[in-house]
Amino acid sequence: MTMRVIIVDDQAMVRAGFAALLSAQADIDVVGEAPDGREGVRVARTVHPDVVLLDVRMPEMDGLAAAREILGPPPGVTHLPKVLMLTTFDIDDYVYEALRAGASGFLLKDAPPADLIAAVRVVASGEALLAPSVTRRLIADFVQQRPAPRKDPALRLKGLTPRETEVLELIARGLSNQEIAAFLVVAEQTVKTHIGRVLAKLGLRDRAQAVIFAYEAGLVRPGDSA
Fold first, then answer.
1. Do 41 and 66 form a contact (C-beta atoms < 8 A)?
2. Partners of 161 in the beta sheet?
3. What does the pLDDT profile of the chain (226 residues) look like in tens digits?
4. Roughly how many angstroms between the first and final C-alpha of the chain, as a whole number?
5. Are 15 and 56 spatial neighbours (Cβ–Cβ below 8 Å)?
6. Half-sphere exposure of residue 63, counting CA atoms within 13 Å on the CB side?
7. What single DSSP character describes residue 38?
8. 104 Cβ neighbours under 8 A, 6+ residues apart
9. Residues sharing a CB contact under 8 Å with residue 69, sequence separation 6 or more, in sequence order
């Protein structure tokens, strides 16, 4: 199945380079581009992509505002694509806020071409943490600086079984599905089942939101490691 992608970046050469790279893949179709966040929101709602590559800093409307618009649309808009943030730095306040808004992850703009292709495929498949250890560090840094609990997350944790709580903790510590399976000595498919139940019970979109939720609930603290 072909993945539909749009590229939102204020640099024309970046858009052209990313578009050429992704379009060369048999399973990826670049269906739109935009030079700023406002136009990116319009294009996303017009062409209904599976993945939006969204630059963090842009004129008119930045990536954070655009992510909020795309992932929190007005009534009547039902299509919700995955959002992959593009950033120049691996620690970026805007990226953290975008993850909280529902973005599925982030990618450095100078990452190798193979990483960009893999990132689009991973996000389109429903996974979120493209580089778990780096994403965990980013989230830990900003949760430590500006904690902002929402809707009594610690109370909501009580709806999880002990094993589901353990899986959530390991996700927040930056472990991949394969690493969690090895740690718990279970099949990787079992881990995926647990993660699905955790997301459903907590009303979370994906793993990125699960990591943030775990920090906000106090299940893990910045600096913890598996």
1. yes
2. none
3. 799 999 999 999 999 999 999 999 999 999 999 999 999 999 999 999 999 999 988 888 989 899 999 988 888 878 889 999 888 765 556 666 777 778 888 888 888 899 899 889 888 887 765 455 555 565 556 556 555 555 566 777 888 999 999 999 998 887 888 889 999 999 999 999 999 999 999 988 777 778 878 887 888 765 555 5
4. 36
5. no
6. 30
7. H
8. 82, 83, 84, 123, 127, 128, 205, 206, 208
9. 37, 41, 61
Tokens encoding 49: 């992509």
Which two structure tokens, joined as six digits, stand for 19? 């578009």
Strand order in the sheet with 28-34: 28-34, 3-8, 51-55, 82-87, 105-108
Query: What tokens were used for 56?
Result: 């963090």
| Dihedral sign computed on CA atoms, order 71, 156, 97, 82 | negative
Both structure tokens of 78: 């039902």
Q: What is the Cα gyration radius of the chain?
A: 17
Backbone angles phi, psi at 57, to 5 degrees: -105, 115
